[in-house]
Specification:
Elements: H1 3-23, E1 33-40, E2 46-53, H2 59-81, E3 88-93, H3 96-111
Helix pairs in contact: 1-2
Length: about 110
């Protein structure tokens, strides 16, 4: 699959998964999850969905809830994207925002 098509697919998956998590999943904690990126394998067999959570204290619990809901999310995604084969979904916590905030804090400390 070409890179342009793969990027377009990643963007579509990111948008639709965000909508599904916000509107369709019944678990209240999952509604506060932000999908930051999606990376689909070149053969479209799997997709990593990178997420962040609003409440860091419940991160593990929310990630567990996401793993439990991934079958529902995948089936909902299949109906919304009209794909013959929807990739297996894997939810991964995105630490890049937390890492960036940590670096920003250290820079502020250095300037003070």
């Amino acid at each position: 699959m070409s890179n342009v098509k793969l990027e377009r697919l990643n963007s579509s998956i990111q948008r639709e998964v965000s909508i599904i998590l916000k509107n369709d999943v019944r678990d209240k904690q999952i509604k506060f999850v932000t999908v930051t990126a999606v990376k689909t394998a070149g053969d479209m067999s799997s997709a990593k969905i990178y997420v962040t959570v609003l409440d860091q204290t419940k991160k593990e619990e929310i990630m567990s809830s996401l793993q439990n809901a991934k079958g529902f999310v995948r089936s909902s995604l299949a109906s919304k994207l009209n794909m013959r084969h929807v990739p297996d979904l894997e939810f991964v916590y995105d630490e890049s925002i937390e890492y960036g905030m940590n670096i920003e804090q250290k820079l502020k400390e250095i300037h003070e």
